[in-house]
Design a protein that fits this description.
Elements lengths: L6 E5 L24 H12 L6 E5 L8 H15 L6 E5 L7 H9 L4 E4 L4 H8 L3 H14 L4 E7 L7 H10 L4 E5 L16 H17 L7 H12 L14 E4 L4 E3 L13 E2 L6 H6 L1 H16 L6 H4 L4 H5 L13 H26 L15 H9 L1
Parallel strand pairs: 1-2, 1-7, 2-3, 3-4, 4-5, 5-6
Antiparallel strand pairs: 7-8, 8-9
Helix pairs in contact: 1-2, 2-3, 7-13, 8-13
Bound molecules: iron/sulfur cluster (2 copies).
């Protein structure tokens, strides 16, 4: 029997967004809103596209700008007419436009929500725009009142990383799961690097978060550390950055154009086709963008050949690697030093602690020194029990 290969289709109802986050790289003023006819085209395109389970993520821009009617019509079409590929849903939003009506529709389909907060109010509003925090928190309360689950992504910039202690404490004190994201160079800005978090700083931040997480097990969940640790402990990546995402991830823009991922939406050179033409997997793979994505995969096979983490890291995110160089493949994901640093740290601690327990079992008088670092075994046990 063929093993199922779940795939992911991101639906971008618009690239418009009411917020003006300082480091944003993805929103576009005046972007149109996807029509319901385009949703119908998505459904007919996917009917015979492949026989694997699908997850639809509504992303943006700000996807709630499409309004309650859009979701009231789109969700039954996607879930009912595509029932044979078992659709799951998710939504990424700043929550400003959430209304009781919209919350009811989303709750009916049990849609988990990802939102964004960069830490305490002052810091968040400095990076994301004045009044952001209150608007998002109002939406958060409304979402909870309607039984929706919300998790926040925290973007660390070159500025906010100086306040990492305050940010960690904010998430822990407010009982929020921490999922982080390093600010990328904004290709739409005159100063693309201004807020971007340099890879070395990102690596230091990850090790800092590993320590704080291990010291506070049971009080907070740091999703990225779980993901890195799963890679090391199981030898398999579980998030898109650490698998070959090409061929299993697509995004559909407001006009029905298909891209390799939401990050490329609005970049004409990455259009692989359009849903109204019902392209097959082969058609998409043979498009110029499909060929470029595959070339990245082949590049990683050679470039990362000597790296012990290649099996799960797979060169990181292709967008990070090729978008800033106008599609020319000049290297792997620039965050490579950060990935190596945290993968090595987790693997070394795990090996040292294993050696320590082995020594004790064999009658050694003391465990080998592991410095003052908090033990990693509680995290191993936690992930194993999940
Ligand atoms: S391009 Fe990057 S963000 Fe997009 S699916 Fe691939 S790894 Fe994920
Ligand atoms: S850590 Fe760096 S060298 Fe190793 S596989 Fe990842 S991107 Fe390649």
């Amino acid at each position: 029997m063929r093993q199922k290969r779940p795939f992911h289709v991101m639906i971008i109802p618009t690239l418009g967004c009411p917020s003006k986050c300082a480091y944003c790289w993805s929103s576009e003023v005046g972007s149109p809103i996807m029509s319901i006819d385009t949703v119908k085209d998505i459904v007919s395109w996917l009917k015979d596209f492949r026989d694997d389970p699908v997850t639809f993520t509504f992303h943006g821009g700000e996807p709630l700008l499409a309004g309650a009617d859009f979701y009231r019509q789109a969700l039954p079409m996607l879930s009912g007419d595509l029932a044979h590929i078992e659709p799951n849903f998710a939504l990424q939003t700043n929550l400003w436009k959430l209304t009781p009506e919209l919350a009811d529709v989303l709750a009916q389909y049990n849609i988990p929500i990802g939102s964004s907060l960069d830490g305490p109010q002052e810091l968040n509003d400095l990076q994301r725009s004045e009044g952001y925090y209150d608007r998002t928190m109002n939406g958060y309360k409304l979402a909870l009142e309607h039984g929706l689950q919300v998790q926040f992504i925290c973007t660390f910039t070159s500025h906010s990383v100086q306040f990492k202690e305050d940010i960690f404490k904010f998430f822990m004190d407010n009982h929020l799961t921490l999922k982080l994201h390093p600010a990328l160079p904004s290709l739409r800005s005159d100063e693309p690097e201004r807020w971007a978090l340099p890879p070395e700083k990102y690596g230091e931040l990850l090790v800092y978060l590993l320590d704080r997480y291990l010291e506070n097990m049971g009080k907070i969940e740091v999703r990225n550390i779980n993901d890195y640790a799963r890679c090391v402990f199981t030898g398999r990546g579980t998030v898109c950055t650490f698998v070959d995402c090409m061929e299993n991830t697509f995004a559909v823009g407001p006009d029905g154009s298909i891209y390799p991922c939401y990050r490329f939406v609005g970049m004409p050179e990455y259009v692989m086709g359009n849903v109204r033409d019902h392209p097959s997997q082969k058609d998409l793979a043979e498009s110029a963008a499909g060929v470029r994505m595959r070339a990245f995969k082949e590049f990683v096979d050679k470039e990362c050949k000597g790296c012990k983490h290649i099996r799960y890291c797979r060169g990181g995110c292709p967008y990070n690697a090729i978008a800033p160089t106008n599609g020319v493949i000049m290297g792997v994901d620039p965050h490579c030093p950060a990935y190596k640093r945290i993968f090595d740290e987790i693997a070394d601690r795990f090996n040292q602690e294993m050696m320590g327990s082995l020594g004790l079992e064999m009658g050694a008088s003391a465990r080998p020194a592991v410095g003052n670092k908090p033990a990693i075994m509680p995290l191993v046990r936690k992930l194993a029990s999940n």
